[in-house]
Amino acid sequence: MNGDGRDYPVTPGADRGGEPVTGDLPRHRLTVVSGPSGVGKSSVVGELRKLEPDIWFSVSVTTRKPRPGEVDGAHYHFVDRAEFDAMIAGGRLLEWAEFTGNRYGTPREPVEKALAEGRPAVLEIELQGARQVRAAMPEARLVMLMPPSWEELVGRLTGRGTENEAAVQARLAEAERELAAAGEFDHRVVNADVREAAEHLLNLITDQPSEDAEHHE
Ligand code: 5GP
Questions:
Q1: Average pLDDT, stretch 16-44?
Q2: Which SS3 state, helix, strand or coil, does residue 145 take?
Q3: Cα-atom radius of gyration of the chain, to the nearest Å?
Q4: Residue nearest to atom 1 of ligand 1 (CA)
């Protein structure tokens, strides 16, 4: 990951959750949380928000239509395809991906601002986006939220009732691909209990050694 000609060293130990020794690089505070659809990312991230209000959470842009209860500017910035593509063309997205027919992306500027202010920043994005962040910022910490079992994930995704059958099937296919890539992540956190998973995540973000973390490595 560090053979990319960057002019600062990338700590080999950083992928074990240790404090990178790359100097005062605020970018190392970026944490990417990925995981298959239905694993409970939103619940865990919501709990994390309550646990540590100092963490800054990125609000993505998406071409997906809002679900009932979703608020523009809070859950996502809902945009049309033309607006989204203009953001790509203008270099205003840190990463973006197409996921089950819609586009999702992370606005670059707010992330850079949060990191420049020294706030820990969290992105909740899918696998292709996580890979782009890893390539652009090797010191970012990548965490994959895992379901306790595949059956549990299928149950959660089909029981959610927010998508039609075809969309559920597409998300399950994506989920399989995402889980197959778990080994690319620095940490894997099993979401058996939302509160525990959020605490585990918080430990990783704040670099607290966590006994539990090792159980899932
Ligand atoms: P949903 O439609 O369920 O809100 O999100 C679908 C998937 O897109 C989820 O895995 C979610 O984490 C991911 N996602 C949300 N925002 C972004 C983003 O800005 N970039 C990328 N690459 N994925 C995102």
A1: 70
A2: strand
A3: 17
A4: 37
Assign domain 26-215 one CATH number from 3.30.1330.60, 1.10.10.10, 3.40.50.300, 1.10.1790.10.
3.40.50.300
CA distance 83 to 62: 10
Q: Could you give the count of Cα atoms lying within 13 Å of 48 in the half-sphere of its Cβ?
A: 27
**Does 50 show up as a binding residue in the annotation?**
no
Handedness of CA 210, 42, 186, 176 (dihedral sign): positive
37 is in an annotated binding site: yes
Condensed to tens digits (0 to 9), the pLDDT of residues 92-147 reads 999 999 998 999 999 999 999 999 888 999 999 999 999 999 999 998 999 999 99
pTM of the full structure: 0.83
Task: State which H helix or E strand residue 116 sits in.
Answer: helix 108-116
CA of 169 to the centre of ligand 1 (A): 17
How far, in Å, CA of 163 to CA of 98, rounded? 17
Domain boundaries, the chain: 26-215
- Given a contact cutoff of 8 angstroms between Cβ atoms, the answer to whether 145 and 34 are in contact is yes
Residue type, 104: Y
Which class for 50: exposed (0-12), middle (13-18), buried (19 or more C-beta within 10 A)?
exposed
